[in-house]
Amino acid sequence: MKMVIAVLVVLGLLGVAFGVWGLYTDAGRARFDEMDGLIPFFAGVAGAILIIAAAVIPAFQFLLRARRAKAHEG
To answer: Taking Cα atoms as reference points, which of 13, 17, 4, 6 lies closest to residue 49?
Structure first.
């Protein structure tokens, strides 16, 4: 599962970096003008979603382990 989280983080960072480059740099704006600017925007949003998912997975695993431990106690 750690490998999945690492891949999600790397892909997320790449998507966010591409989005920032495409929206906030002169070279990016020249490459993606007008409606094409939606490509880096959505890549950045998708990257942010992947990073959030990578943070939620360990939190969810922790909650499941805590719930199982509590069920075994009682």
So the answer is: 13
Q: What is the DSSP letter of 74?
A: -
User: How does pLDDT run along the chain (74 residues), one tens digit per residue?
Assistant: 899 999 999 999 999 999 999 999 999 989 988 888 899 999 999 999 999 999 999 999 999 999 998 888 76
CB contact at 8 A, 21 and 40? yes
Sign for the CA dihedral angle at 20, 27, 36, 8 comes to: negative
The closest alpha carbon to 21, from 39, 7, 35, 34, belongs to 39
Cα–Cα distance, 27 to 18 (Å, whole number) = 12
